[in-house]
Amino acid sequence: MGNHITIKDIAKALGISTSTVSRALSDAWDVKKETREQVLAMARKLNYHPNLNAKNLQNKRTGTVGIIIPEFVSSFFPKVIMGIQEELYAADYHIFITQSDESRAKELANMNLLREHMVEGIIISTTNEGGNEEAYRELIASGLPVVFFNRCPKTVAAPKVLIDDCRMAEMAVEHLINTGRTDIRHLLGPVNLEVSAMRAQGFVNALGKHGMESEGKMIPAGIFVQDGEVAVARMLAEGSKLPDALFCFNDPVAIGAMRALKAAGLRVPEDIAIVGFSEGSMATVVEPPLTTVLQPMQEMGRQAARLLLEQLTGNRRQSDRTVCLEATLNIRASSVSEKE
Amino acid sequence: MGNHITIKDIAKALGISTSTVSRALSDAWDVKKETREQVLAMARKLNYHPNLNAKNLQNKRTGTVGIIIPEFVSSFFPKVIMGIQEELYAADYHIFITQSDESRAKELANMNLLREHMVEGIIISTTNEGGNEEAYRELIASGLPVVFFNRCPKTVAAPKVLIDDCRMAEMAVEHLINTGRTDIRHLLGPVNLEVSAMRAQGFVNALGKHGMESEGKMIPAGIFVQDGEVAVARMLAEGSKLPDALFCFNDPVAIGAMRALKAAGLRVPEDIAIVGFSEGSMATVVEPPLTTVLQPMQEMGRQAARLLLEQLTGNRRQSDRTVCLEATLNIRASSVSEKE
DNA sequence: TTGTACGCGTTATCAG
DNA sequence: CTGATAACGCGTACAA
Hints:
The structure is a homodimer.
Chain A: H1 7-14, H2 18-25, H3 33-46, H4 52-59, E1 64-69, H5 76-90, E2 94-99, H6 104-116, E3 122-124, H7 133-141, E4 146-149, E5 160-163, H8 165-178, E6 184-188, H9 194-209, E7 218-220, H10 225-238, E8 245-248, H11 251-263, E9 273-275, E10 292-294, H12 297-312, E11 322-325, E12 328-330
Parallel strand pairs in A: 1-2, 1-3, 3-4, 4-5, 5-11, 6-7, 6-8, 8-9
Antiparallel strand pairs in A: 10-12
Helix pairs in contact in A: 1-2, 1-3, 2-3, 5-12, 8-9, 10-11
Chain A binds a DNA duplex through helix 2 and helix 4.
């Protein structure tokens, strides 16, 4: 099949040995200018392309790092990847992108695939299904550098990059309190995600700090627009007293919530204020614009890459350092009326 | 460095030959049950993982296909990729995702990288910079199966998957005409993209069909929210008579246009109707919801994958067949007032 | 400055 | 059923 041109072909065509060709191609010092030029000319004439499989096998390194993300339909992970690329390309590494589709099994399969491709390190953001903690540990124990970002397994010792979800959640909820909201509820994220717990904790902290009860104020929701919509629709159907503010696990949930409220004839923010988390492209486009927490996505990618590079360049063995990035609470009209 | 376990290690540990190990691992028929079990046990004990570089080198095939997309921050390409995966995984291929970042140079670099990784085929959606036509032809001439989707180079003979951009654009504009709009303008996409030309052509066709002049009705815009915003702001600043409808190259441009109109105190759709193209997640979330053309993204991916598989499985040599998919005009409030 | 010989990890062929 | 041996494409001591 794929009858690719090899250095053998070049050698034969020129009547010289393959080693000379090899040297000429990687322009070594000990090759006559004349022959190098001949080789280069012939290579381009035959449209030669090196076989990386062979090269990597020989070199015992691939210059590649693997990435496993749960999905790339939202713009969060792609933006992080851009940061990763930026840093890694500069260090002459290529990246191999893989997606787990939020499935524990696929994530595991990807880990194996990457390992078998001899990647030199892996950057992971876990699925919301969870359950691969043992596999992460085994991977790390096998000597492969691993870095987590955004969704990090609590029980695995490895370098991690995240924002202080708890503190930012607390800040977001305090913003609601400070603008006069007195009955705030939280639309929860997926139960298996550490970030869900962190944001919920921030919610509880903020209420506690201001002497408010958080008991019974948490509503299961999820991660998608529909999750928020369903959760709020159910709340409305219950018919009990409505809250005056909702702090949501993320932007899609917040937008779903807004949609359900509007459909029921309620006004945002006058009747109910809405706050999201992890600002995406939709935040500034919805009506009213959404108050939410902006994560430094590119920077998160850059940091994750740097943490990996630290290990790759051997400066440091598997440090289990956690890098905590600054995030920003962007206040918009979904939580404060225009005139305020 | 990466002191990976090899079949040699297994062989040595068991006092047998590497060939036997190899056979046991790929459970060949001619290996004693007992030894196979020993090998498997030892492999798992030593945490063995095959080296795909070596495997691929030997097998002369990688079971991998490469993908080059311009970006993955919008959800369009990721959704297409999901379709590609679906089809390709079923056929036991892996995919290698690569992004050109809309840059001609990066696209070229990716083509080479993929080729050197010995992918068995490549699926491409081109950059809006263009200019790699010669490279595509060379790639194809070298015997590598290539399929284009959505953004396809007009002058390159290869299988392509797209929707009938021209006809859908025409349909979208006719919708505006049929709802009583008489002065419609078009916010253009990037000049180097075939799809830009196609959608513009559809615009012209629709006007022509209804005896309207299209001369001077095309406004340069682009591809991002900001492009639409700037284009409309400029139009408003000119102070000449305003159109009563805008047909935009894509959704972000449409949303940018809407934003600029709102900022100027104009109402959508009462004063000016807006129609986008290539429905994304923002269409149903903006206010008012956007009339736009929904592309069958997953299906587009599946078709592209199938076209590639046709060539990979050798049923067909580089056919330059074009598959045209059905799209849908989703009419929403941005183009028709509620009461109509 | 160039060629020879060998090895990277794997599979395939062919004896035994 | 199992073990040598060669080969995939490339890089690199070592010799010449």
